[in-house]
Predict the structure.
Amino acid sequence: MKEVVVKCPATVANLVCGFDILGMALKEPYDIMKLKLINEPKVIITNKDDYNLPTEAEKNVAGVVLLSIMEKLGDNIGFEVEIEKHIKPGSGLGSSAASAAGAAVAANYLLENRFTKDELVQFAMNGEKLASGVKHADNITPCITGGVTLIRSIHPLDIVPLNSPSLFVTVVHPQIEVKTSDARQILRKEVLLKDAIKQWGNIAGLVAGFEKGDTDLIGRSLEDVIIEPVRSILIPGFDEIKTRSKEAGALGGGISGSGPSIFMLSTDEATAKSVELIMQEVFQRLGIDYKTYVTSIAQEGVSEISTK
Ligand code: ADP
């Protein structure tokens, strides 16, 4: 195999109460990446979209990931990469993770699957470090494996894939900028014990809910008493969307990643579509441009579309 084209899904990290430890893959939106092996130790990147992301390997998350793979291999090989991005950078929908995970998985296909899933996550985390300054795996892991994942620890890496019921996901991406660094900076460094108890009860409930396929338990556990109250002030319309979506029958939801996207889970498509109408109505009224998706949890992560 000399060339591979892969589909790289968007991901929702944090999953409300699971800050930095839970994430899930979405069927839509997704990026497309084409990778080719070349006999020179360099990475050549071409963008097939209008986002003007850097093409220097050291400044593009896909490039950084591929350079780390080349360093490990030590052979005289390199990669030609085409990125067709549909997940807007900075949306909170795992745009950088899609490129990082896509590069790692596609390179592995070309290298006859010599690396394990854990090794691919390690390579891909180098890309997340470039994008956000810290290594984190809550977008990368579900992007690679699909479904819902728990990252129990990154030092050492301990990934726990969770069962996920077929739920619908409504996403709204208001076209405002929330810098990941700002969203991290405003967080309090200390938490009250009573809040911590509530939070770990919710995380345990959410994990149990996924494992048992108990959607009521999932809904009850989608509560974040630590991060969301602080971060949601950066997202106009957040409280109204959450309250009205739940009234319309959604299980619950919250901020996707560090925002500004908001996601809501529903058990059926009709509810997911009424949630979309609520999101559209709120952002129209606020005069903020937006994009919505009604999609579902992707059981498959980065996947091959074609090979040559
Ligand atoms: P998201 O929250 O959507 O994942 P991030 O804030 O994690 O977005 O990452 C976006 C940042 O990473 C932007 O500053 C962008 O310029 C940079 N970046 C570099 N290469 C890529 C890439 N291939 N895909 C997406 N973002 C990239």
About this structure: The radius of gyration is 19 Å. The longest strand covers residues 22-38.
